[in-house]
Write a structure and sequence with these properties.
- The chain is an alpha+beta fold.
- The protein has a domain of about 120 residues: Deoxyuridine 5'-Triphosphate Nucleotidohydrolase, Chain A (Distorted Sandwich).
- It is built from 4 helices and 16 strands.
- The strands form 5 sheets. It has a 5-stranded antiparallel beta sheet, with no helix packed on it. Strands 8-9-14-12 form a 4-stranded antiparallel beta sheet, with no helix packed on it.
- Strand 6 and strand 7 form a beta hairpin.
- The radius of gyration is 22 Å and the shape is globular.
Length: about 230
């Protein structure tokens, strides 16, 4: 369980975080379920709309929204947003900040502009003891003109703090408005210590079980979805 909170004076103003399963991208809804494949003589093939791993990645965790409309023109960003002054809080009133390019010196990132954009987040996020949060670019969302950098925060201990989202702007020629509510980060709960790894060769029974599964996947569409998906 992730608990998101905002300052009471901002509650009516801010777009709210949403479970990712309730905010699937429009292109997924609009794409066909099957298409003709010229390489197969025009035979119909199923699209990734039938791919449970991709659908489950799109549906995983929580999406954090952009606080307000951002307007891009001639390499500049602007906004028409005037949130109330919060004398009892030290959070920024600007919806976006910048990191200097020198702060990314030595990393293999290609910047379309001369800085790293930072989407400001106005929601604290709290998790149960022993649970961290992975913040990453919305999964499989290459349609967005930026790429949010990934990071992990121990939000069971940092539940009163704000985690902001640095992002690489990838479309130098983008002009227009990035609307309020655009997902700028996907948040996934990660139990600490869950990354232990054991390596072992298969025994005979495991080899046979794996072979049987591969045969079923090849011969019966939907095997994973019907028998192996939670």
């Amino acid at each position: 369980m992730i608990t998101a909170r905002c300052h009471p004076a901002l509650e009516a103003l801010l777009p709210k975080p949403v479970p990712a399963a309730r905010a699937l991208p429009g292109w997924l809804r609009e794409m066909p379920s099957e298409v003709a494949a010229p390489a197969l003589g025009g035979a119909a093939v199923r699209t990734l709309k039938h791919c449970p791993p991709i659908l489950d990645a799109l549906s995983l965790g929580v999406l954090m929204p952009l606080a307000c409309d951002l307007h891009f023109a001639d390499g500049h960003v602007s906004w028409d947003w005037d949130p109330p002054v919060l004398p009892d809080s030290r959070i920024s009133r600007a919806p976006v900040g910048m990191h200097l390019p020198e702060q990314a010196q030595g990393v293999p990132w290609k910047l379309a502009v001369n800085s790293v954009l930072k989407f400001m987040n106005f929601w604290t996020l709290e998790t149960p003891p022993g649970t961290s949060l992975l913040f990453t670019h919305p999964l499989n969302r290459e349609d967005l003109p930026f790429r949010t950098l990934s990071g992990v925060v121990d939000c069971d201990l940092f539940g009163d703090g704000y985690v902001h989202f640095p992002a690489l702007w990838q479309d130098r020629d983008f002009a227009g408005t990035l609307p309020a509510g655009t997902p700028v980060a996907q948040v996934i709960a990660v139990p600490r210590g869950a990354d232990a790894l054991t390596l072992a060769p298969m025994n005979g029974a495991q080899v046979q079980a794996s072979t049987s599964l591969q045969e079923a996947l090849s011969e019966t569409p939907g095997t994973y979805r019907r028998h192996h998906r939670h």
